[in-house]
Amino acid sequence: MPISLLPKLIFCKLTDITAEFLRQRGIELLMLDFDNTMLPYTSRVPTEELLSWIDEMKREGIWLCVVSNSKKDKAAGFCREHDIVCITHSRKPTGRGIHQCLRQFDVSPSHAALVGDQIFTDVLGANCAGATSILVKPIHLHNIWLKLRHVAEQPFIYLANNRRITK
Q1: Is the pLDDT assigned to residue 1 strictly greater than 60?
Q2: Cβ within 8 Å of residue 58, ≥6 positions away
Q3: Which fold has domain 9-163?
Q4: 161: exposed, middle or buried (C-beta count within 10 Å: 0-12, 13-18, 19+)?
């Protein structure tokens, strides 16, 4: 796969993505980054909107799997509580966690997408694995390092702005 830092699709937030939208594109498996995609780094409490979205995806037959670089128990604990498969220590952008998820669900990359808030891990990892990359705005940039990383991502977001689905 060619290396690309441009997301295939851009949404404002995770919950803007619908099962119908995914099905229209042949996507059966949605891999999810956790921190700043599903929940802010600084919180363990999901919104009602997120919980409803998870229930809707499951009801509509979209498989969900959290693929997180985190080594903490926050993502795994959330996934246990909400019956979502979770792969931690995924080493994005390397393909380790992504390919592990694809094998576990027996899904080809062309029928999978990875949604996350970071160009240099989530988008690059999905693109290199052959999955559809979906970028969402980070929920909360709570420290200088996250803000600086986000500034460095802006040229790639600008170049891919025609791929934006929601404003």
Answers
A1: no
A2: 64
A3: Rossmann fold (3.40.50)
A4: exposed
Decide: pTM greater than 0.90.
yes
- Range 131-150 average pLDDT: 91
Kindly state the average pLDDT of the residues 103-119.
97
Residue 144 main-chain phi, psi, to 5 deg: -60, -35
Distance (Å, whole) CA 72 – CA 166: 32
Please state the three-class secondary structure of the chain as a single string.
CCCCCCCCEEECCHHHCCHHHHHHCCCCEEEECCECCCECCCCCCCCHHHHHHHHHHHHCCCEEEEECCCCCCHHHHHHHHCCCEEECCCCCCCCHHHHHHHHHHCCCHHHEEEEECCHHHHHHHHHHHCCEEEEECCCCCCCHHHHHHHHHHHHHHHHCHHHECCC
Backbone angles phi, psi at 98, to 5 degrees: -65, -50
